[in-house]
Sequence to fold (208 residues):
Amino acid sequence: MARYLGPKFRLDRREGTNLFLKGKRSASPKHPIEKKGAVPPGQHGASKLKRKVSDFGLQLREKQKVKRIYGLLERQFRHCFSEASKEVGNTGEALFRILETRLDNVVYRLGFAPSRASARQLVTHGHVTVNSKKINIPSYNVKKGDIISLSEKAQKLPGTKESLELRGDQLPAWLARQALVGKVSSLPSGEDLDTTIDKQLIIEWYSR
Fold:
């Protein structure tokens, strides 16, 4: 399945919430969610709100929402879940630890890019180093103590400067940043993960 290249706001309306696929710039009064409410796209979008959603539908929508937030294809997301299910402990927390420590997500979380899609481009174009070694694999999982930095060219990109100004010092507790150098202070734990996501629904979907 090819990566979705259409309007990002359409995905927000489909999932009934702002997924921030354009980063903090998505938080605007002009956003369709703010203007029209959580009405699904399409001619019969409003009527879909009146339907009773089955357990299957709830699980599917939660899985799709998370997959779209992190910008993954189904095959990639299923692989992440498979790896999480092999770990000892809470599968839901393991899944989100894997998702959060992806290099493209870390670049975004550090404020080096305005969105995860932009962060993915920085990585694939060879503008990101981990411990002074260039890594061009977005799915690369960082480890505690890793140092993440940008190439000189990337540091001068308008999008990078804009993102740093917009995001300021808003960093997850498990990351640290000084100038344009980031560090993985610790691995994200349960309290660092998004509490608006129902991890159990995703586990149930893949356990069918």
